[in-house]
């Protein structure tokens, strides 16, 4: 039997919660879901068209961070690259990732992918619902337009 979309979404949200919250002294430091009213959503870097939003969950954009990326249905993030690798987990919506490093990847809620450092990629929110992706960067969150970035 194939899991329903809502089961997949719940599973993705559970995986995301486990990935975002780090144990500390026997308890959880914090818990945030993509629909948490306490998230501070800000705008994406200038090279992305208006409508893209980021919410930092842990760390900071200069030294490494875990964050949510939210875009409306039909939105496309233009080709760009990052100086460090990026780990992604689909939270909601259907994503399509085109990259110089690998074939086209479709990310549904709960799907995980790694984009290597310096790989040019383009991301689209396909379907008719907004998309949220969990992103983890071990280095600064930089985004440089085009196909290459300087290390």
CATH C-level category: Mainly Beta
Q: Whole-number radius of gyration? A: 15 Å
In what order do the strands lie side by side in the largest sheet? 3-4-5-12-7-10
Give the number of helices: 1
Largest sheet, strands/sense/barrel: 6 strands, antiparallel
Number of strands: 13
User: What form results from the Cα inertia axes?
Assistant: globular
User: Could you name the ranges where pLDDT drops below 50 across 5 or more consecutive residues?
Assistant: 1-25
Structural class of the secondary elements?
mainly beta
CATH fold-level assignment: Jelly Rolls
Write a structural description.
It is a single chain. This protein is mainly beta. 11% of the residues lie in helices and 42% in strands. The chain contains one helix and 13 strands. It has a six-stranded antiparallel sheet, with helices on one face. The protein has a five-stranded antiparallel sheet with strand order 9-8-11-6-13, with no helix packed on it. A hairpin with a 2-residue loop joins β1 and β2. The radius of gyration is 15 Å and the shape is globular. Mean pLDDT is 76; it is low at 1-25.
Short summary:
The chain is mainly β and 151 residues long.
Topology of this structure?
Blueprint: H1 5-20, E1 23-24, E2 27-28, E3 42-43, E4 53-60, E5 64-71, E6 76-81, E7 86-92, E8 94-99, E9 105-107, E10 112-115, E11 121-126, E12 131-137, E13 144-145
Antiparallel strand pairs: 1-2, 3-4, 4-5, 5-12, 6-11, 6-13, 7-10, 7-12, 8-9, 8-11
